[in-house]
Design goal:
six-stranded mixed beta sheet; about 325 residues; five-stranded antiparallel beta sheet
């Protein structure tokens, strides 16, 4: 079996009467990058901590490369982990922080020094080995934490919202670097985030969690274009609910809503008459808000699409039947 294959079977974690992880099955193929995505309290961090051995499970099985992890403490699972807070030792140098795991493993000093140097080079932190964490920026601390997780050559890398403490611009840069590093090393990676854009940008597959369960796992494009449930549809990206226009729950993405002249109808389209109540410039796009009486619709257009309709103007908001998502049943 390939190194780094993670299997979770029927995993359950309870806190009293609350089920934090509810009978979860998850396969992470060796070398792949999977994001656990969901709102606060959905169980994603608890699941990650169960895999790491930081939280005892109540039921289920966990295997890495076919090896049963049941009852093994974190230090015997040999996993790499980067926490949201980075958890660097403030009194240690960068090199000492990165080499901590090697020292715990009893690695010879010469070999440990070479591996620490390679790890720092991997994350572009060579030359910083003598500094303390307080002397580093947030992005640099994140790189050091990543080097510390990678230096022991773990079969699986676990990332618990490692970018959330960074400012918006640095987050964008670091997620690109993280994805490039993961591809270069080919290390199996499980990444926890509540940021949908982040998950879609870095992961091969996105596992969306709700109330302790994985409700859909698929590639980013599939999760966005063919969400399995109304919850996934509303959590991933922005969407318009179309209550009353179809049996069940109907929705359409803002980019699929077209603005027509009042009364203009086209074959294969559904539409409602309304009035523009707001136009928001959002950099690369315009967000047009249309009041259609019993509902408010959002339409997004390219910022280069030309002059938007004026606030107060009458329009017909229309969309193709094939672009509409419809969910039937309870």
């Amino acid at each position: 079996m390939s190194r780094g294959h993670l299997e979770v079977r029927s995993l359950v974690k309870r806190y009293g009467s609350h089920i934090a992880v509810d009978n979860v099955d998850l396969d992470v193929e060796a070398g792949s990058f999977v994001a656990l995505l969901g709102p606060s309290g959905c169980g994603k961090t608890t699941l990650l901590r169960c895999i790491a051995g930081l939280v005892a499970v109540d039921a289920g099985a966990l295997r890495i490369d076919g090896r049963d992890m049941a009852g093994l403490p974190p230090w015997r699972r040999s996993l790499g982990m980067v926490f949201q807070s980075y958890a660097l030792f403030p009194h240690m140098s960068v090199a000492a922080n990165v080499g901590f795991g090697l020292r715990m493993q009893g690695t010879a000093r010469g070999e440990a020094g070479e591996r620490v140097a390679r790890a720092l080079q991997m994350v572009r932190m060579e030359g910083f080995d003598g500094r303390r964490p307080a002397e580093l920026s947030g992005g640099q601390q994140q790189r050091v934490a990543l080097a510390r997780a990678l230096v022991t050559a773990p079969p699986v890398l676990l990332l618990d919202e490692p970018l959330s403490a960074l400012d918006a611009k640095l987050r964008l840069a670091m997620r690109t670097e993280l994805r490039e590093l993961q591809r270069r090393l080919g290390i199996t990676t499980l990444f926890v985030t509540h940021d949908q854009d982040e998950a879609m940008a870095v992961a091969d597959r996105v596992a969306v969690m709700d109330q302790g369960r994985i409700v859909q796992i698929a590639g980013p494009e599939t999760v966005y274009r063919r969400p399995a449930t109304p919850f996934v549809a509303e959590f991933i990206g922005r969407i318009n609910r179309l209550d009353g226009l179809s049996d069940g729950v109907a929705m359409v993405r803002p980019e699929h809503v077209q603005l027509r002249a009042p009364g203009e109808a086209r074959d294969g389209e559904i539409g409602v008459e309304g009035r523009v109540v707001d136009v928001v410039f959002a950099g690369d796009r315009l967000e047009i808000h249309v009041d259609a009486g019993d509902r408010r619709l959002l339409c997004t257009l390219s910022a280069t699409a030309g002059r938007p309709p004026a606030i107060g103007s009458a329009v017909r908001a229309a969309w193709s039947r094939t672009d509409m998502l419809v969910y039937r049943g309870p």
